[in-house]
Design goal:
alpha/beta; eight-stranded mixed beta sheet; globular
Length: 730
């Protein structure tokens, strides 16, 4: 690999035409900074109000009220400082554009080897047909096939997954040439043939479509029956012979099979395709996806040893066949590419509803904040859709020489995927993907950047990769819990950006990492603020200045300005008004459930009470649930502590708001004074009630299977009513 790197750098030394361009924001930057300064000035006025107001009327305030006032001050200081940290992601955004035509003129087919890693872990949650569609899509990338290799890591050790991949290997001999000949997009056959507008109207397309349907039928039938057909056991006997009779998902030897060897004379030019299921034993920790990635790094280094590595989740197919060339425009640029360790693409989805019911897209993060991170030294590594330099992810520091690996026979590489290979080594520490964190990708990316490397964020006009978004609320909340928990663990670990990254990366990038690491602890202030606002409205205790008071101006300005800017930003990113409203609801639900549970689990883990676990998000939904998702009807359906918390908070907001309105109606003479004194609390609690409408529907009005379970509804009702009763009697 060292010789290959030297050849690439010297052979084109005279070609100085850049392969990519970086554009920084110029227009609107001054206006944004003025806006941010005005908002922060009003935030400071809010802090001043909390300090000054109790001093002016201290004789009328009880000790309990002063305690509430102090809590409100602390919470608003948190919100103000956190808002300031988040704005750091908008100070210096950059957008990158690539010139693949220049790359082609300069290199032609003389490109570095590319190894693609696709990881799966459970054939039930991650259906084999979906997995092989992802594999087929990357096998058909616009890339020299003799330089391309695709590795599927099956942590489930499933014969069904191997059977599906073997079938896909046969179909690839038709699919890959078809894609190259007719330049079809996307190159996932499932996505292509389900898209009525893109499919070619030709005999060739009809023939390939029929072959795909036949393959898909065989795979789906085997998946439903949970067994491989007898004829397949005979046809692919060499691969199936590696399974012991007593092998289980958590107890089996290494299984390694090269299904297509594109390194040898290949008349139809198909990339190399390799199946790997690393050894699993109950007595050895396998480190989840991070362990799978490290096993792939070692095994692939002895088979094809691609200088560049792309890793993908098994549900994230290649939607843009030129994505590899786009990434190489950055990594192979002679001037700036040498300092870039990895190129991260956004995480987009192909099953979003029109208004993104569960806010899965996180548009502003993908289209604004990550570009801001790129301007400060590079985006986070998010675990999928990322092109790496192999030697960098294996531990090389910026400025060191690249290391080479000897390519050997596949059979000799099985020991590299054994349970005991890493014992006493630096794998999972200084080499490969790091262990011990639910977001191993983020902490690995941070460590790479702290070794002197930069990263780049690339958002081509045509989305590079498309995945499967959660189709029910519980899936989304569980996924967000793992992310927030992992980010918070990073903040408290030896790799915390607060101290580990000091002097190694830019201050702006440190703030960017802190922004996401603080997701979990931000749950506590949000929960307390919403509870205090609603309960004090219920009790008749004013927490904000009177509506006509001059002190009300900063509160009103911050509320209106921040939300108006948020809406404008969301619409600029291609969202809809209803989509923005859905995203506000999801941020509320994340902060009062997922992030809160992630925060508590992290604290418990620090005290040795709990252990982290990796939860695989289901990629399929039942037919009725899928129909409700398409209609943008929120799916509950299961009992969950997170649903109990959300239900209790929702009912509490409803009870408090209803009680306050009834008090106004019963005391009509004093209604005007109450509205003036607690107008802000009426607005906040009323908005909480409105935003929770889908929750109330699921708890009280719906009859379908996706409604909130009755036990959760009853418990939430009793808890909320009990809290209101206690407050009323106090």
């Amino acid at each position: 690999m060292a010789k290959e790197a030297d050849r690439f750098s010297s052979a084109h030394e005279g070609d100085r035409e850049p392969l990519f361009a970086t554009r920084r924001r110029t227009g609107g930057l001054i206006a944004f900074r003025f806006f941010a300064a005005s908002v922060f000035g009003c935030i400071c006025c809010i802090w001043l109000y909390r300090v000054v107001e109790p001093l002016e009327k201290d004789e009328n305030r009880t000790g309990f009220f002063r305690l509430i006032w102090l809590v409100m001050l602390i919470l608003e200081i948190w919100f103000g400082l956190y808002w300031l940290v988040v704005q750091s992601l908008r100070w210096n955004p950059v957008w990158r554009s690539t010139f693949t035509d220049r790359l082609s003129r300069r290199y032609g087919d003389d490109l570095p080897r590319l190894d693609v890693f696709v990881c799966t872990a459970d054939p039930v949650i991650e259906p084999p047909l979906m997995v092989v569609n992802t594999v087929l899509s990357v096998m058909a990338l616009d890339y020299p096939p003799e330089k391309l290799a695709v590795y599927l890591s099956d942590d489930g050790g499933s014969q069904l997954t191997f059977y599906a991949l073997a079938e896909a290997a046969e179909f690839a001999k038709t699919w890959v040439p078809f894609c190259k000949k007719f330049d079809v997009e996307p190159r996932s056959p499932g996505a292509y043939f389900s898209s009525k507008s893109n499919v070619l109207d030709s005999a060739a397309a009809a023939e390939v479509a029929e072959l795909y349907r036949e393959m898909a039928t065989r795979i789906e039938t085997a998946t439903k029956l949970r067994r491989v057909p007898e004829e397949a056991l005979f046809k692919y006997g060499e691969g199936f012979s590696q399974w012991d009779s007593d092998a289980t998902q958590r107890n089996h030897a290494t299984i390694l099979q090269i299904l297509i060897d594109g390194r040898k004379d290949n008349t139809i030019a198909i990339p190399t395709l390799v199946y790997l299921s690393r050894e699993k034993r109950p007595e050895h920790h396998h480190h989840y996806k991070a362990g799978s990635m490290n096993a792939l790094l070692r095994v692939s280094s002895k088979i094809t040893c691609g200088r560049i590595i792309l890793n993908l989740d098994c549900d994230m197919y290649a939607n843009n066949s030129k994505s590899a060339l786009e990434a190489l425009c950055i990594l192979l640029d002679e001037k700036e590419g040498k300092e870039i360790a990895f190129v991260q693409f956004p995480q987009f989805y192909d099953n979003l509803t029109r208004n993104d019911l569960y806010g899965s897209m996180m548009r502003v993060i993908a289209d604004v904040e990550f570009n801001g991170l790129d301007g400060n030294g590079g985006p986070l590594y998010i675990g999928t859709g990322c092109f790496h330099r192999r030697d960098v992810i294996c531990g090389r520091k910026y400025g060191e020489e690249e290391q080479s690996d000897e390519i050997v026979e596949a059979e000799k590489t099985k020991s590299l995927a054994s349970c005991i290979y890493e014992k006493g080594s630096e794998w999972g520490k200084e080499m490969g993907v790091k262990y011990g964190c639910p977001v191993e990708d983020v902490i690995t990316g941070l460590a790479i950047q702290c070794r002197g490397w930069k990263s780049a964020y690339l958002t081509p006009k045509k989305e590079a990769f498309l995945g499967v978004a959660p189709t029910n609320l519980h899936q989304m909340l569980v996924q967000q819990k793992r992310w927030s928990e992992g980010d918070f663990q990073i903040l408290l670990s030896e790799y915390s950006p607060v101290w580990y990254a000091q002097g190694k990366i830019s201050f702006g990038l440190i703030l960017g990492y802190c922004c996401y690491c603080l997701w979990a602890p931000s749950s506590v202030p949000v929960l307390l603020y919403s509870l205090l606002t609603s309960l004090c409205l219920f009790k008749g205790i004013p927490l904000f200045p009177k509506v006509w008071s001059s002190w009300f101006i900063p509160f009103g300005y911050v509320t209106l300005a921040v939300n108006a800017y948020s809406l404008a930003e969301f619409l600029w990113c291609g969202g809809t008004l209803r989509g923005w409203w859905n995203e506000q609801r999801m941020w509320l639900y994340r902060r009062t459930s997922s992030f809160l549970f992630g925060f508590m689990d992290t604290i418990l883990k620090k005290f040795g009470v709990s252990e982290s676990a990796f939860v695989i998000t289901a990629k399929v939904a039942e037919e009725e649930a899928a129909e409700r998702y398409e209609k943008e009807v929120m799916e509950f359906g299961v009992e969950s502590p997170m649903f109990l918390l959300l239900g209790t908070l929702g009912m509490l907001n409803l009870f408090c708001f209803a009680a306050a309105v009834m008090r106004l109606m019963m005391n009509s003479r004093e209604a005007g004074g109450d509205v003036q004194k607690m107008g802000m609390q009426f607005v906040i609690t009323g908005l909480l009630v409105v935003i929770n409408w889908p929750l109330y529907e699921g708890m009280l009005l719906r009859k379908d299977k996706g409604k909130m379970p009755r036990t959760v509804t009853v418990k939430a009702f009793v808890l909320a009513l009990s809290a209101c009763t206690c407050i009323a009697l106090s």
